[in-house]
Amino acid sequence: MSIPRNLYHYTEINSLALILANKTIRFSALNKVNDTNEGLSVDYGDLGMYVFVSCWAVTKKEYLPLWNMYTPKMRGVRIELPFPVFNIYEVGKNESLFKEEDLITEDHIKLSSGKPYRHIIYTNDEKKISPKISRKLNDKYGGVYLDGLGVYKEKIWMFEYEMRFKFAVIPKPKTENIQDSFPVKEFIELYENRTPLGFSHYDLKISDSAFEKMKVTLGPKISPGDEEIVRSLIANYNPKAKVIKSELTNKIR
């Protein structure tokens, strides 16, 4: 599928306020999103705590199910931002949401593999929804690859037309210099023991160029008071952003 020009995120006004004030988008762990199959693997069970996603719709057309599911009583907003929303960095042969020097901290490691964005693939194939994530490279080396999680969803979710940004985070093993020696056994023990990260979400900065091009669509049932709140937030935090009415306004009782 082609890369969209713009992405759309349905949310409540309180979340909009935090996005505007902090210029960030919150990534949630897969085991915290609304699809309970997310993060499941056939060989290691639920490792969704280590994979973080930010979920977006790719269609400009408004969808009632998305207004209903993600905004209270259709009184929230839809945020529109140009792709790729975040700054993208080259790390070796991969693209990453983080600079190379920020991938390893004292407490954890952010994994960079391929591209940090992808369209969701909808299928009812159980082997894809709950994939095998352990791989044997040769007689001596193998590992667990979290990039297989958060890729497929059941077809009942097709109405979301979802594209997501994704990265994995794991606790840092005790090996003194992970860049010199890749401690596969320690990684596997971390997964098997469900070693906690200490957090279940991660806030990532929106790129300055994307932030300035923000559009906010008011929910089709937004109250006059909430509309004033949205317009005030935009005027205060992002005066270059546009606020527009929903195309469904006055069409729903």
Could you give the order of the helices and strands? EHEEEEHEEEEEEHEEEEHEHEHE
Q: Count the helices. How many?
A: 6
> Which secondary-structure class do the elements indicate?
alpha+beta
Total number of β-strand segments? 18
Low-confidence parts, pLDDT < 50 over ≥5 residues? Answer: none
The total tally of domains equals 1
Helix content: 10-25%
Protein name: DUF2971 domain-containing protein
Organism: Aequorivita aurantiaca
Notes on the protein architecture:
This is DUF2971 domain-containing protein. With 253 residues, the chain is of the alpha+beta class. It has one domain. Helices cover 19% and strands 29% of the residues. Strands 2, 5, 9, 10, 15 and 16 form a six-stranded antiparallel β-sheet that branches. β17 (215-218), α6 and β18 (242-244) form a beta-alpha-beta unit. α1 packs parallel to α6. The longest helix is centred in the C-terminal third of the chain and has 14 residues, at 224-237. It is globular. The two termini are 36 Å apart.
Sequence-ordered SSE layout with sheet pairings:
Layout: E1 6-11, H1 13-22, E2 24-29, E3 40-41, E4 45-46, E5 51-57, H2 64-70, E6 77-82, E7 89-91, E8 94-96, E9 108-111, E10 117-119, E11 121-122, H3 126-129, E12 134-136, E13 142-144, E14 152-153, E15 162-171, H4 184-192, E16 201-205, H5 208-212, E17 215-218, H6 224-237, E18 242-244
Parallel strand pairs: 11-14, 17-18
Antiparallel strand pairs: 1-6, 2-5, 2-16, 3-4, 5-15, 6-17, 7-8, 9-15, 10-15, 12-13
Helix pairs in contact: 1-6
Organism: Aequorivita aurantiaca
Protein name: DUF2971 domain-containing protein
